[in-house]
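Cont'd.
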Amino acid sequence: MTTVADPAAPVSKPRVRDAEATKARILDAAKKEFAKNGLGGARVDLISEKAKANKRMIYHYFGSKEGLFQTVLENAYVDIRTAEQKLNLDHLEPKQALERLVRFTWDYYLKNPEFITLVNSENLHRAKHLKKSEVVKVYSRKFVSMVESILQRGVAAGVFRAGIDPVQLNITIAAIGYYYLTNRFTGSIVFERDLMSKTAIEDRLAFNIDTIMRLVAC
Amino acid sequence: MTTVADPAAPVSKPRVRDAEATKARILDAAKKEFAKNGLGGARVDLISEKAKANKRMIYHYFGSKEGLFQTVLENAYVDIRTAEQKLNLDHLEPKQALERLVRFTWDYYLKNPEFITLVNSENLHRAKHLKKSEVVKVYSRKFVSMVESILQRGVAAGVFRAGIDPVQLNITIAAIGYYYLTNRFTGSIVFERDLMSKTAIEDRLAFNIDTIMRLVAC
DNA sequence: CACTTAACGCACTAACTGGTTACTTTCTTA
DNA sequence: TAAGAAAGTAACCAGTTAGTGCGTTAAGTG
């Protein structure tokens, strides 16, 4: 974000006011703060400070701390669901498609740890914010039907067994990655090994792919 | 808690002072509050009120809010690890033993939802409290070796395949139950079904047992 | 019984926290 | 270009919160 010198204007202050940019900075800072400390632990003052925006702007754009949280959460869900859709699993063989989904889910959680913490925080509050979101429901439906169609194609091709509930499968794919990562701190103590070392992370992904493949195998 | 009339003493106040009972009441109230609102969201005043103890007592016995949290968390881990040891899995056939463990883990999470929330809260704080606990490490070792011996017996009996990492298996058994339950609120929205209905809970347990059995099968 | 120890309680505070009031500055457009 | 709308700011507030100072009362002990 370097300001390129403009020969015409000696001191160029392009866009001193930019509602969209300010909003974006607030959302970005809020995502980090909420992920780090939870809804209750996050501080509005700190969010505004890190966003280099006045606290008043948060209330101007999002109404309240909870309104801000809801927007952050909604965006997080839309982000992951959008990324999933881009995988284009319909063009792959069923087995390949499923493995790719397991791999993607793991990588996404790994690269976006805020997502996990936001979801945890939302569940602590009994999903009161997500309940209000219509967008999320629409995206979720597409997501479930994506896995459903992989399963169906696999059964038709004779590589997957019949009768698997796509929702249970979905939950399981998420679970084996999510749990490992969200509990990486207590887990590293309980199991007395560094769960986040490079090899540990590779091993876990391999184990997860294996788990899912065995689950759907005939 | 009705005070039964004592003919000898007009107003009987037996055991006005009882350190152990007060401590226990505080711990019980704290467990509920921490589980409900997390470490940051829990209120010390409310804990003391619900424990019918003076707030001063919390600082007297536990030093600080975080000291109280640490004790609550430690107790929660000791509780589940103790219950696991009581399962006496060594006396069962490997397959039966493993199924029993999956079932137990699920039931325990279901009946003790505070455990999950406490662990979540602790991971939000990067396990800084659990790190200090030596007791938990000792109990954890016993727990891992329990699953290890089931696996070994199963391999020897020719019912389980060889080469499975007991830690990975342990994590997976926990994951498929834990994730489902901790995310039951957002999950019920995303998947548009009540994940906590009686049949849903039964179905999930059956699915989990199946998942683990397929994972270890030859 | 005198005396020490530990349990217990009241009232207080310093720092914080979400939210607001009142105001200035910049941009857009009729 | 005048005026209104929108963006942005600083100072402030009322309620809350973890933590304490200090005094009181019951229980154990020689």
